[in-house]
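It is worth pausing here to work through a concrete case rather than discussing structure prediction in the abstract. The textbook approach is simple: state the sequence, then state the predicted structure, then interpret. We follow exactly that order.
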Amino acid sequence: MGIVVQKYGGSSVADATGIKRVAQRIVDTKRLGHDVVVVVSAMGDTTDELRDLAEQVTPLPPPRELDMLLTAGERISMALVAMAIAQLGYKAQSFTGSQAGVITTAEHGRAKIIDITPGRIQAAIDDGSIAIVAGFQGVSQDTKDVTTLGRGASDTTAVALAAALKADVCEIYSDVDGVFTADPRVVPTARKLDKVSYEEMLELAASGAKILHLRCVEYARRSNMPVHVRSSFSTKEGTWILPASEDEGTMEQAIISGVAHDRSQAKITVVGVPDKIGEAARIFDALAGAGANIDMVVQNVSAAATGRTDISFTLPREDGQTAMAALAKVESEVGYEKLLFDDQIGKISVVGAGMRSHPGITAKFFAALASEGINIEMISTSEIRISVIVDDVDVERAVQCAHTAFGLDADEVEAVVYGGTGR
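Step two, the predicted structure:
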């Protein structure tokens, strides 16, 4: 038998009962003859509670110290899970991200993995132990400081470790039974997908589906690592994320695989930009220098009378004020008239490889939104995705009507949310 990497989210290890249940599942996998490596998130809402505590001490906690604080949550989980496994009569060793060899960039709060050197993990496996690794964290290659990888990045830790260890599979356990055609909390009639290609899962994750971290899917595709998304609260088969070559011919290719939504974005409009060569470049150079991650971009047709145009774009809400400050610094250089900021928006996306060969998908999507009186503010497309920006108050209705329009509703409720937030 080969190596199996398992990742357990915060809702799975939220309390002592959950930790014992997780330990039993880990031991059961070990009994089947597999070598087991486990990645854990912080218990329940520990990370949010630690962040709130930091903000009570100071409104602007230093990023290095905030990372030191936040990584404590996963350390608690890893030690408790190792203790629970020992109680069941099996050897377990816990490791922080740095001890596990997770080498990252130096950017605190959203560092990226550069390399994995899992020497200590492999030694623990060779010794017959179950290795328990703290997710979401690593150590900077340059500064040797502890870093965090961003919210939800324990998924990425797990897939990166699985690739470095040449594991057979990476299992991602959460509080839902797999990947659904929409968030079950918004669409109770969402259906579970048995298999999804990396390509479709990348689009779903980028569009707001919280079941898997985007960088986790990118890592899985790059390393060709099969990922099995399932619930730690049941023994049901989950959803397999597979390479397209394995996926073709084995899954029923629906036109649309799912509807995703994202409420974490904001929209900035730069009003009255002179319609001259290089002005857009100056705007986006300033945003890049501020580290703002731009998503959708729309530029209006220039007004003939004024020779000016408006440029709108979306970005993570948390980057909004930084981006506004960066744009304010280049106001005199660019010569725009004013800036508008709107954080009461949501992005709705329909995703499916089947839309490549089916015309009329865009028309059906827009007609469904129009029938509900939902106004579209921005539009963006890829080969297998259509995304729109709508007012925040319309997000749930937009998801529900799109899900119904594309025939994704199940005849009966399939989705069970066992607890937590789906992470």
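Step three, interpretation. Residues 246-252 have pLDDT under 50 and may be disordered. The longest helix spans residues 63-87.
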